[in-house]
Amino acid sequence: MARIYKQKTKTKGFSYYFTIELGKDNTGKRNRIKRGGFTRRKDAEKAALELEAAALSGKVIKQNTSITLHYFMWNVWLEYHRGFVKQSTAWHIESILRRIDCFFSSDVKLVDVTPQKCHLFIKHMFIKQKLSRRVVIETFNILKAVFTHAIKVEKILSANPCENLSISRYSAKEKEAQILVDANKILYIEKDDLEKFFIQAKSDKYAFPYYTISLIMLYTGMRIGEVLGLQWENIDFENNIIHIRHDLFCPGALDWVLQTPKSKSSIRDVLISDKLASILKSYRKQFLEFKLQSPTWDQLQYNFIFSSFKYPGQPLARQNVYWWVTRIAKKINALYIHPHLFRHTHVSLLAEAGVPLPVITERLGHASTKITEEIYLHITKTTKENYLHKFNRIVENL
User: Which domains does the chain have, with CATH numbers?
Assistant: First the structure.
């Protein structure tokens, strides 16, 4: 029931306000709504009756003034969303929440986060942390989603402090700098460096199993997680097909999960050449020898093609692949090479061979991406220019 109160104002007059009790929250504290500024008691009574009716119908926001931003993000919002995302996505979101925690103290209340504080957080990410615009936007959108959940699902807030804020546009200087970055961006591994890489890689003392992993990425365009998630049952040697059904997410040595690939189109069958099939058969012999020499082999339900050395039978971690590829790249003085660039190089080789873009995107396991189109257009443009030069040389003496 509402209670009406009369109070003096600075102008020596009187005004009225009311309070409505809405029960207790999860912590046992009372939920109370207070409204004021009425010049007549009659107006306060009318507003109180309307608000009580709204409360009974569930249309009124019951503000929880005690819950902290930290608690709500981790124990309410994240736990709710875990059921809708992959474990790898949840892990990535956790890293973003830790970034938010670094700015907002652990005891700051959810209701005390203002638009000004959110704006300062944006500036902090740009100026202090020197994060990229993409990372700042991603982090800000997560924070905004947290408050949206508090309003629409939990109904403990009435306004989103991020609602009317936006990330500033690129300045002229930033645009110019980005143009230079894009102009000098290396899209794929050049053929000379590619040849040097695999000559060096084949003779490296740590070639097993990394040499084969690199060749698979180059020959198929598979993502590194898809390669590391392969099991022997996924290789059809009779028909030269690799069945891509999983993606390995591995944040730690023994902390991994075999999940579905990145998207629905990523579940696919990839045709492989006789040469790659032969390489895989040779690798299998090495693999079986390695398995026989490992008495502590973990007999898992998954028969991974690429096993950890430290924990035989367990899957190989992607950071080990990054370490080895970087090691070889340093030896040939091509520091720009990293594992994912083999996927891009696969695109460039297919484009040069005249394979249509839709076929390439299907083979890679996605509808379309900006980087794939960029590589394809670059290669096809170069090919057309070469054709034109050849044509000009033919007709120039006619």
Answer: 3-56 (no CATH), 69-170 (1.10.150.130), 191-383 (1.10.443.10)
